[in-house]
Design a protein that fits this description.
alpha/beta, 4-stranded mixed sheet, binds guanosine-5'-diphosphate, single chain, binds magnesium ion, binds 6-O-phosphoryl inosine monophosphate, 10-stranded mixed sheet
């Protein structure tokens, strides 16, 4: 703080939601700056589990303001559902603001997401089908509808009358059978706009004023570095920039305000969706990684996540492109109970060492990990992990401490947070 960015270092689902929630009590604001409802961020409070897609993960902390900034694409029906669900569970959600410049995910974006995935065949990323790609395509192509349009019925109608017939032609050409109805879309979206209008404001101006008053701001990344449109697996990632620099662009604050960059990594690797995955495991190891500690199933799509060993080749790149100042390592508890734990320290392809994480999917798919093996650590109950967390890092089993120390040394970045369970209490260091 004052400007701390939290980003994912792998393929998303690293536990960013939990880490943001645990830092949010000391933050004046939490800001989502990219992505959309493709994100699924889990926060556990006591026995209550929350899965946020658009609401920033600080929303349960009443004194913390939560901003959805210009870089996010907002699906209004989904956001309203989240607001309603969270209110029904006793949280007022008055601590929310939405950028008037954020783009709106429209029903035709979700239709086109499905059609494009089908047409792409083996180039399909296995998207969340939340309309993210087509919404960002429209933003860049200047066909987009923004929040300031959504709350202005005259502008909304004029835009829909122009855009919807064009989208209908694209749907038809892509082999879709859906019929778009301008009147119905207008009616639904005017209603969404009326409900969301009280939250809509210039969030960048709000942030500027807050930063001038030395307020502490947490920037909440969605997805992960290797899903980033510029630096991630292409075309198997998402459609927005997920690296730390995107916080400046998406939130509309100068980069000098981003003083602290915290990267979140799982103690192993997981992903939902398609693409090469050098350290991927199947069989018993996969079963262990997927089923322990709450289960590796997509927070948004509930698909089983692909799982594998920790990959320091991809993490070295993540440290570099984000300019990390610190690491948070999650899910150490999930590795417990394995005899041996492996870490990829390098790759080999075609008989020679691969220095950097490759851009080419053809090369990446031929990369063989070079592993280093570690001794495992024993299983503990949730209560025992929490008791260990209270005592701090030194109380961790020796093998787990060695594992963390190796990660820290290899990545030349200090581990500031270690997470050993889903709950707030199962966290070491902040
Ligand atoms: P995000 O998208 O990065 O916020 O991560 P998700 O919420 O999609 O997925 C992370 C999952 O791991 C969630 O179910 C969390 O509750 C859970 N989780 C986070 N940290 C830990 C941890 O240290 N141990 C265990 N067992 N689960 C964790
Ligand atoms: P959080 O914020 C994990 C993946 C999808 C797919 C690809 C493109 O919870 O970490 P999209 O719907 O974005 O066009 O899908 O990216 N993906 C995620 N995987 N966590 C996420 O978000 C993801 N958001 C997108 O599975 O492979
Ligand atoms: Mg997630």
């Amino acid at each position: 703080m004052p400007g701390t960015v939290v980003v994912g270092l792998q393929y998303g689902d690293e536990g960013k939601g939990k880490i943001i929630d645990s830092l949010a009590d000391r933050a004046d604001a939490v800001v989502r700056f990219q992505g959309g409802a493709n994100a699924g961020h889990t926060v556990q409070v006591g026995d209550d589990l929350y899965a946020f897609h658009l609401l920033p993960s600080g929303v349960l902390r009443r004194r913390t303001m939560n901003l959805i900034a210009a870089g996010v694409v907002v699906e209004p029906g989904q956001l309203l559902k989240e607001i309603d669900d969270t209110r029904a569970r006793g949280h007022p959600v008055t601590n929310l603001r939405i950028s008037d410049r954020a783009h709106v995910v429209m029903p035709y974006h979700k239709i086109l997401d499905g059609l494009e995935e089908k047409l792409k065949g083996n180039l399909a990323a296995g998207t969340t089908l939340r309309g993210i790609g087509p919404a960002f395509e429209d933003k860049v192509g200047r066909f987009g509808i923004r929040m300031c349009d959504l709350i202005d019925p005259d502008v909304l109608r004029a835009k829909l009358e122009k855009i919807v017939p064009i989208k209908q032609r694209v749907i038809d050409a892509f082999g879709g059978t859906d019929r778009l109805d301008v009147e119905a879309i207008f009616r639904d979206h005017v209603a969404y706009g009326e409900r969301l209008a009280p939250f809509v404001t210039d969030t960048a101006a709000w942030l500027d004023a807050a930063l001038k008053r030395k307020k502490r701001i947490l920037f909440e990344g969605a997805q992960g570095t290797h899903l980033c449109i510029d630096h991630g697996l292409y075309p198997f990632g998402t459609s927005s920039d997920c690296v730390a620099g995107a916080a400046s662009v998406g939130a509309g604050v100068g980069p000098r305000h981003l003083s602290d960059i915290l990267g979140v990594a799982k103690a192993f690797t997981s992903r939902v969706g398609a693409g090469p995955f050098p350290t991927e495991q199947e069989g018993e190891i996969a079963e262990h990684l997927r089923e322990r500690g709450g289960g590796e199933y997509g927070t948004t799509t509930h698909r089983p996540r692909r799982v594998g060993w920790l990959d320091l080749v991809m993490l070295r790149m993540s440290v570099r492109v984000n300019g990390l100042t610190g690491l948070a390592v999650t899910k150490l508890d999930v590795l417990a109970g394995l005899d041996r734990v492996k870490v990829a320290v390098g790759y080999r392809a075609g008989g020679s060492a691969v220095k950097e994480f490759p851009a080419s999917m053809r090369i990446l798919s031929t990369c063989e990990p070079v592993y280093r093996e570690f001794r495992g650590w024993p299983e503990m109950s949730e209560a025992e992990w929490i008791a260990t967390a209270r005592k701090g890092r030194r109380a961790l089993p020796e093998a787990a401490r060695k594992y963390l120390a190796f990660i820290e040394t290899s990545l030349k970045t200090p581990i500031r947070i270690a997470s050993v369970g889903r709950s707030r209490a199962a966290t070491i260091g902040r």
